[in-house]
Every structure is written in C-alpha cells, then in structure tokens.
From TrEMBL:
<keyword id="KW-0997">Cell inner membrane</keyword>
<dbReference type="GO" id="GO:0005886">
    <property type="term" value="C:plasma membrane"/>
</dbReference>
<feature type="coiled-coil region">
    <location>
        <begin position="51"/>
        <end position="78"/>
    </location>
</feature>
<keyword id="KW-0472">Membrane</keyword>
<dbReference type="InterPro" id="IPR011922">
    <property type="entry name" value="Cell_div_FtsL"/>
</dbReference>
<keyword id="KW-1133">Transmembrane helix</keyword>
<feature type="transmembrane region" description="Helical">
    <location>
        <begin position="25"/>
        <end position="45"/>
    </location>
</feature>
<keyword id="KW-0175">Coiled coil</keyword>
<dbReference type="GO" id="GO:0032153">
    <property type="term" value="C:cell division site"/>
</dbReference>
<keyword id="KW-0131">Cell cycle</keyword>
<comment type="similarity">
    <text>Belongs to the FtsL family.</text>
</comment>
<comment type="subunit">
    <text>Part of a complex composed of FtsB, FtsL and FtsQ.</text>
</comment>
<dbReference type="Pfam" id="PF04999">
    <property type="entry name" value="FtsL"/>
</dbReference>
<protein>
    <recommendedName>
        <fullName>Cell division protein FtsL</fullName>
    </recommendedName>
</protein>
<keyword id="KW-0132">Cell division</keyword>
<comment type="function">
    <text>Essential cell division protein. May link together the upstream cell division proteins, which are predominantly cytoplasmic, with the downstream cell division proteins, which are predominantly periplasmic.</text>
</comment>
<keyword id="KW-1003">Cell membrane</keyword>
Amino acid sequence: MSMDRIERWVAILRTEWPFRLRIRLWPLVISVLFLLCMVTGLAVVTTTHMTRMQFAQLQQLEQEKNQLQTEWGQLLLEEGAWSTPARIEQIATERLDMRIPDVNDVEVIRP
C-alpha cells in the first residue's frame, strides 16, 4: 500500500508540480515587484528632496557670494579714495591745521 501511495504521489507531482509551482510563485513575484516599486519610488522621492535642498543651499551661497563681492568692490573703492594724496592733504588741513609751507618759510640746511 505504501508503494501505491508513493507512485500516486509521484504521478500527481509530475502532472501538477510545474502548474502549482507557477501559481504559488505569482503572489511572491507580484509582492517582490511591488516591494521593488515602493523602494524605487521612495528612492526617487528622497533623491528629489535632497536635490531641492542642495539647490536651495547653492542659491543661498551664491547670493552670499554676490553680496561679499559687492562689499569687496566697495572696500577697494574706499581704499583707493583714502590713499589719494588729495584726501590726505585735505584731512591734514582740516583736522591737524597743517598747510603747505610758503617759499619764505622754507629753510635749507646744508651739511
């Protein structure tokens, strides 16, 4: 009797095995594909969010760079204005009451 059962089981297995295997694999395949789609979607959303955050940070840094370049240009102009001889002479005259000596006030000392 046990040999009959084994032969019957083998016969059933031969006829039904690929079909049953395929039917049982479909839910697994579908769930794996669904899981892969969900993971891919999450990766796309995360990547898009990170890209937007980095782009916003880039814009902010570029704006700060432009402001610093503007300030640097203003500082260079002020430096040029402060170091001109006319500016130094004007400050010496106004604040220190200095003046260019007349020809009569100049005394030449020889060694």
